[in-house]
Each structure stands twice: as C-alpha cells, then as structure tokens.
Amino acid sequence: MNFPDIKALTARAIIPKDGSARTVTVTQNLHPGEAAFSIPTDNNTVKAFTTGKAYFKNLMQAISSAHESIYIAGWQVNWDAQLDEQGARLFDILLHAVKNNGALKVYVMPWDDTAPVQTFDDQTKTALELINQIAGRECLFVMLANSHPDEYSQFYSHHQKQVVIDSKIGFVGGMDLCYGRFDDADFDLKANAHHRNALNRYNGCVFQTGMLSSQNVVNPDLIPNHTPTFSYTDTDKDKEIRDRTIAEIQNPKRFQVPYEDDSPRYRNEHLDEKLVTLNPSTQPRMPWQDSHVKIEGPAVFDLARNFVMRWNSEDGWKKENVKKPILTLPPAPPPVYTGTGCIVQVLRSAPKAMRELEYKHMPTDDQKKIKLPLDAQHNIADAMKTLIEKSQHFIYIENQFFVSAFEQEGNFATSDLVGPAKVTYDKESSSVTATQAATMWDNDKPPQNAICKLLADRIDIVIKRGQKEPFHVYITLPVHPEGMLNNGSIMSQVHWTMQSLVFGSHSLLNSIRRSLYADK
To answer: Which residue intervals of 314-378 are DSSP H helices?
Structure first.
C-alpha cells in the first residue's frame, strides 16, 4: 500500500491588524519508514483538555463503560490520586469498574522509580493489587517498568502518559494519574480546596509546614510480601496489622502516608502524628497547567500497540510464583483513508535498548514482518525538526525544561564557559556533590539535541532574507523546573537551560547575535 499524501494540518491562530488570520502548521506527519512508530490514520475524533479536572471527568466516564481491558501507563501513577471534586481516588474508580464488569481486566504500568526520585510506585502496586482480593478474581495487574536507557542512565525515566480502554478510546498527553493534577481553569492556590487531601495538596517547590493527622493516612508497606523493607512472621499480631491496613486502603477517606526523604520513618504500625503537608492558611498549592487529548478511531490501535509491546517486554514482574500475563492485540484496523475526521499519527521516543527488548518478546510471526531495531526511536524530535524548518510566521514552545546543544560539535571545553557556569566550575568548594549536581553530564559530553541550532538557523534565514513578513519565536518556561532551588537536580536543570539559551558560545541568543552581526 502506498503512503497517502496527507498534508500537514493547519489552524487559525494569530490575527494581524488587517483582520486576516495567519495559517499555522500544528502537526507534521513523518514518513512511515523504519523510524516512524506508526502510519497516519484519518477518521479519528480528537478532543483536547487543558485541565486535569476536564480530563479526569472524561476518563472516569470512559472507565465506567469499559468492557474488556484498561491499559494505564505513566511516569507516576498513584493509587490515591484525586480524580473528581468529591475526592474520588484512582483506587475507587478502578475497583468500581471491575466490580461492575466481571470480564474486565486492568493493566497498570508505572515507571519503576530510582533514587532520589520518589513516585510511590511500590505503594501503588501494593494498593491496587488488593482489588484482586476484594473482587475475588485476578483482574488487575501492576508492572513496574524498568528504565532501558542507551546513555545517561541516572537521569533517564519513562514519560509516556496514556490510558487505553478496550483498544477503542485512548487518552494521551502530559498528565499522569498522580498527585496535584486535579485542577481547573481557575488554577486556584488554596491547598485544601476541592476536597484536596494528603499528597494531593501538592507543591514540590516549598518546604511544607502543615500537619497531617495519622487518622487520614494509610501505609501500604505494612502489607507483607510487597516491599523488601519488611519481613513478617505469621503471627496473630501481623495478621491484625495486615487486615487493618487492607481495610484502611479501601476507606475512601484514607490516603498514602507521606515519607520524609524516602526514609522508612513512617513505615511502621504507629504513625507519628507530625506528618507534614501544605499549610492551607499560609502555603499555596502548585497549580498544574498541561494538555491531554482523547482519541477515538483507528489511531487508538497504535496507542494500545505501544502499551502491549512495552508490557510484554518488561521483566519487572515482582509477584512471586505468578506468571506474568502476556497481552495480545486485536487485529489492526484496515488502512482505509476516508478523507474524514482528524488525521492522527502516533509518534514516540524509545531508546534502542527498549526497542530491542520489545522485538525479542514479539510473537515469531510479528518478528518476521519487521527488522531488528538498529537505533533509538526519536519521532518527536524528528517532528519538531520538521515543524521548525517549515514554520512561516511564528514558533511557540512551552515546556517545563529547555536543554539543548550550546557548543559546536567537538569544541566543548570547560574553559569556554561563561556566566554562572564558569563560577560553578571555577569556585573552590569542599562540597564535591554541589559541583557534580550542577554539571549533570561529563564535561566532554554536553547536551546533544539540536533544537537551539534549528531555531537559530530558521531565524538566520529570516534575518538574511530581510523578509517584510514578521517572524517570531516564543518560548514559555517556568522560572525554574518543579522542585526547590537548593535541590541539586533543579540547580543542574537551571544551569543547562541558561547555557542553552543565553551563556553558551552557540546558545540560542548568541547564535542570533552572530546572524545580526553578519547581516550588518
């Protein structure tokens, strides 16, 4: 079958003084060769969400109507994440769904976090798997997905955030089913508004001063055989603790107990009353701005395929004496192009190591249809490159991070650094940790992605052509990424962002200055 000639979609966006709308490219299809994860499909219905409240409302409706399967993948998935105004938890929604449909099975795949990051993935696995005991059947499975990086293993994590229901409805985008995401268009700062409680009162950028009663929390780690922190003998006391903890998790008014610096301080039967949380009278919650989409149509098959391939290739199945369930996909929809609905192409980033594992665990017949992956999959970067190169009037980028190559290839040296970067390298300090945290990469391996260069090259064309048509690049970033400024990882991210945009010899601004100077 020939690849269809599907043009890039356009949208009306900026209105000049004359009232005529500018045409803006908002997506770009990639050729479905070996590099692209899927081919474009049309006849899809797409609905966008810009708040967690709107997304979660649609998600809950879809989950309640699920008949066969629910696939959930995320960087962070929390069993007690708040999903509605009344404080409904993810645990409650999934339990209700499997109780109402005896054939429904749920598969949950959070990232298996690594220190110092704490996403409460082990606790989510413990809590959600209790649904099997309550429902009286094996209907919910949790797999903690390992990292499979090709490089920079200490900084690598999975950020795919998707839910697929019956392989017919897909939700994908930037919002995890986790703490802090329940928000509306008002972005209110009141920590305890909308029945927010415990870790759902979220602000990772401040030292929290509020008190949380132990009567409102539960510790899933008290259930044995789920975490290596504990070993239990089968005593009446142990059984009492276990049974009480299971009952507390089912209580819709109970939430995950917070940990202090991931220590086992609260991982015992008698919780300290001094559990910290945001103080609603003096401390703001962190509002959450992000985007997500709901897709119905043939493109959902590719979201399901991504989940199934990753699930089957994982070795993170931690339940003893239980064989990992292997998932199978329904037949792919026929590649018929109707010329109706939305055109959608599912793109993804995946390291070579992950792709090789996916290939290894494919059925033999599927392996025969494709080649062994020889490289990483970087569809999203490829799509961004195409968008930047084909832009006509403006480029808008909004992100939590911005780190890009800021030196010519092979020319990076610490002696070339200026601004805060030079201070970081030159200042004598007894704390090696601070220097290491602020450098992030080896000195001879600066960031490799080419976004800064692509933006600079596109602006250079505009400058040298002397076009009358105005061209602008808008980049919206937070003052600093999520986290406290005295945190080493946050310092390093700010450090490399400033090198990418301002201080590096080939930063975005310095590259533009060269173009302006050459045009004189």
So the answer is: 352-360, 364-369
Higher-pLDDT residue of 237, 121: 121
User: Which tens digits make up the pLDDT trace of 293-336?
Assistant: 999 999 999 999 999 999 999 976 655 556 789 999 878 888 77
Q: How far apart are CA 79 and CA 248, in angstroms?
A: 13
Cis amide bond preceding 116, omega within 30: yes
**Crossing angle between the packed helical segments 90-100 and 236-250, to the nearest 10 degrees:** 90
Does residue 503 have a pLDDT over 60? yes
pLDDT of residue 435: 40
> Cα separation of 108 and 143, whole Å?
6
33-46 burial string, b = 16+ CB within 10 Å, else e? Answer: eeebbbbbbbbbee
CB 309 within 8 A of CB 346: no
Q: How far is CA 488 from CA 111, 323, 340, 431, 438, in A?
A: 22, 40, 50, 12, 6
The stretch 46-55 carries a mean pLDDT of 96
- Contact criterion met (CB below 8 Å) for 12 and 21: yes
Residues 6+ apart with CB under 8 A from 144: 109, 110, 111, 112, 121, 122, 125, 316, 318
End-to-end CA separation in angstroms for the chain: 52
Rounded to 5 degrees, φ, ψ at 93 are -65, -45
Cα–Cα distance, 153 to 284 (Å, whole number): 34
> CB-based contacts of 271: which residues, under 8 Å, 6+ apart?
214, 217, 219, 257
pTM to 2 decimals?
A: 0.88
Cβ contact 276:208 at 8 Å? yes
Strand, helix or coil for residue 251: coil
Question: How many Å is the maximal CA-CA distance in the chain?
Answer: 85
What integer is the mean pLDDT of 39-48? 94
Residue 29 DSSP code? P
Least confident of 97-111, 185-199, 260-274, 448-462: 260-274
| Token pair for 454 | 């692509």
Sequence-ordered list of residues with C-beta below 8 angstroms from that of 318, at least 6 positions apart, any chain: 125, 144
Q: How far apart are CA 382 and CA 380, in angstroms?
A: 5
Q: What is the spatial distance between Cα 492 and Cα 332, in angstroms, rounded to a whole number?
A: 44
